[in-house]
Specification:
There is one protein chain. The chain is an alpha+beta fold and 431 residues long. It has eight helices and 16 strands. The strands form three sheets. The protein has a twelve-stranded antiparallel barrel with strand order 3-4-5-6-7-10-11-12-13-14-15-16. Helix 1 packs antiparallel against helix 2. The longest helix has 21 residues. The protein starts with a helix and ends with a strand.
Length: 431
C-alpha cells in the first residue's frame, strides 16, 4: 500500500501543476469537474496525514525505493507506454511485480484524464534507440571503499614582492702590494770578508678589467715597483735603486672561439728615478729615459689548467710598432738612437706569456716571458716571482730575472745575457 500513497501524491502534484499550465493554453480542452478534484485532493491530504507516522518510520526504506530505477517513468517527461494499455485491453493480462503494476495503473489514469500532458510515445523512443531492458529490476550501486583523502592544505595568500633588477656590472677591480726589507750585517774582521747592507722594496699591482661574458674583453694592469739599497763600500751614493719599474698593459679582445681572442695590445713602460752604480756618478737611466711604447695586433689564448690553479694568457702579436723615447740626450746612443734625435720607431713581432701558478695554498709562482724582435735586434725578458705566504699579512719573495738584449754592449763573461736576483721578507696586502 505504501507504493500507492507515493504514486497518488505524485499524481496530485502533477495534476495541480498541469492544471495551472492548462489555463495558459489558447486552445480549449475538456475541463475536469472542479468539485470532484477538490474532494479528491482533500481526501488525499487526510489519507497522507493518517500515514505520516508510518511514513516517517519507513523514511530510510522509502529513500532507497524512490531511488529505484523502476520509478523513472513517473519523473521523466510524460510518455505513452504500451505496457499499461496492454494490461487494460488484454483478456489475459500479464502482471509484473507490485511496483510495476502500480506505475502502469498511475500512467493509464493520466492518459485517460489528461491526454494533453502526454508529450511523447514509446514507438518514437524505440525508433530513436532501444530502451534499457533492466528498468524493471531494482538497481544496486557498487561502492568501493577508499582511504580518506587528506585535507588540502590552505595556502597563504601571495603577498606582492617588490622585484629590483640591477644592471650587471661587468667591471672588476683588484689590487695587491707588498713592502719588504732585507738586512745583512758583517763585522769588519769577518774572516770571509764582505760588507753590511740594507735594502727595501715596495710593489703594487692594480687591475681594472671588463668582461661582458659574451664577446668583449678589456684588461688593464698597472705595475709599480721600486727598491733601494745601501752599502758601506759605496762612498759616492748613500743609497741607489736596485728595482725600478712603471709599466702599463692594456688589451682589448674580441672572442674568436672559446679561449681565443682577437687582440689589440698597448704596452708602455719606463722607471721612477735614476739608475746608478756603486762609486760611479754616471746616470745610466732615468724617468722617460728610456720610455718604451709597443702597439700590436694578433691573437691571445686564455690559459686555464690544473683545476684553474694555472691561469693567465699567451699573446701572439705578429705585427707591432715599437716606439722608443729618450729624454736625456746623453743616453740616446745607449738605446740605438743616433744624431740629435730623441725617438726611434721600428716594426717588430712580439710574444708575451703572463702566467700565475698556485702551486699550493701558500706558494705561488708568477712568470712573465716577453720576447720582441725587429729582425735587427732581439729582446727577451723572463721575470719569475716566487711568493711564500706566511699568513694573511706576512710573506716572503724570491725574484729571478734573466734577460737577453743584443742591443747592449758585449760582456766578456755573460755576452748579451743579464741577470738579477733578490729575496725579501715583509708585509703584503691584497683586495
Amino acid at each position: 500500500m505504501k507504493y500507492r500513497y507515493i504514486i497518488f501524491l505524485v499524481l496530485v502534484v502533477l495534476s495541480s501543476v498541469d492544471a495551472s499550465a492548462q489555463r495558459c493554453k489558447k486552445q480549449e480542452v475538456e475541463k475536469p469537474d472542479t468539485a470532484q478534484v477538490v474532494k479528491d485532493y482533500i481526501d488525499s491530504l487526510t489519507m497522507l496525514r493518517r500515514q505520516l507516522d508510518s511514513l516517517h518510520q519507513a523514511n530510510a526504506q522509502l529513500r532507497t525505493e524512490v531511488s529505484d530505477g523502476r520509478y523513472f517513468r513517473l519523473f521523466a517527461p510524460t510518455t505513452f507506454y504500451h505496457s499499461g494499455a496492454n494490461k487494460q485491453l488484454s483478456l489475459s493480462p500479464q502482471t509484473g511485480d507490485e511496483v510495476t503494476d502500480a506505475i502502469d495503473e498511475a500512467l493509464m489514469n493520466i492518459y485517460m484524464r489528461r491526454p494533453d500532458l502526454v508529450k511523447n510515445n514509446e514507438s518514437v523512443l524505440r525508433s530513436v534507440g532501444s530502451l534499457r531492458g533492466d528498468v524493471n529490476k531494482e538497481l544496486t550501486q557498487k561502492v568501493d571503499l577508499v582511504d580518506m583523502a587528506a585535507p588540502v592544505p590552505e595556502e597563504s595568500e601571495a603577498v606582492p614582492v617588490a622585484v629590483v633588477i640591477k644592471k650587471p656590472n661587468f667591471w672588476k677591480f683588484k689590487a695587491d702590494g707588498y713592502l719588504q726589507f732585507l738586512q745583512n750585517y758583517v763585522s769588519d774582521n769577518w774572516y770571509k770578508g764582505g760588507e753590511s747592507n740594507y735594502s727595501a722594496v715596495t710593489a703594487a699591482t692594480l687591475e681594472l678589467n671588463y668582461n661582458d661574458k659574451d664577446k668583449v674583453l678589456f684588461e688593464n694592469k698597472l705595475e709599480m715597483k721600486l727598491g733601494f739599497q745601501t752599502s758601506s763600500s759605496d762612498t759616492v751614493h748613500k743609497f741607489k735603486t736596485n728595482n725600478d719599474l712603471l709599466r702599463l698593459t692594456s688589451k682589448l679582445g674580441l672572442q674568436a672561439h672559446k679561449h681565443w681572442y682577437y687582440t689589440l695590445q698597448l704596452l708602455a713602460y719606463t722607471q721612477f728615478t735614476r739608475g746608478l752604480k756603486a762609486n760611479d756618478r754616471k746616470t745610466y737611466s732615468d724617468f722617460m729615459s728610456p720610455f718604451n711604447l709597443n702597439v700590436g695586433v694578433g691573437m691571445e689564448y686564455k690559459v686555464e689548467a690544473f683545476n684553474k690553479r694555472l691561469t693567465g694568457s699567451l699573446n701572439f702579436l705578429p705585427l707591432t710598432l715599437n716606439f722608443v723615447y729618450v729624454d736625456r740626450e746623453a743616453l740616446a746612443s745607449s738605446y740605438g738612437i743616433s744624431g740629435d734625435h730623441h725617438t726611434r720607431e721600428e716594426f717588430a713581432s712580439q710574444f708575451t706569456a703572463d702566467l700565475k701558478w698556485q702551486l699550493t695554498d701558500q706558494i705561488s709562482w708568477k712568470s712573465r716571458l716577453y720576447a720582441n724582435t725587429s729582425y735587427h735586434r732581439a729582446l727577451i725578458e723572463w721575470e719569475n716571482q716566487f711568493e711564500l705566504k706566511v699568513n694573511k699579512y706576512l710573506s716572503a719573495n724570491l725574484f729571478l730575472y734573466p734577460r737577453f738584449d743584443d742591443s747592449n754592449n758585449w760582456d766578456e763573461h755573460l755576452g748579451y745575457f743579464q741577470f738579477q736576483e733578490w729575496s725579501s721578507l715583509g708585509f703584503t696586502c691584497s683586495f
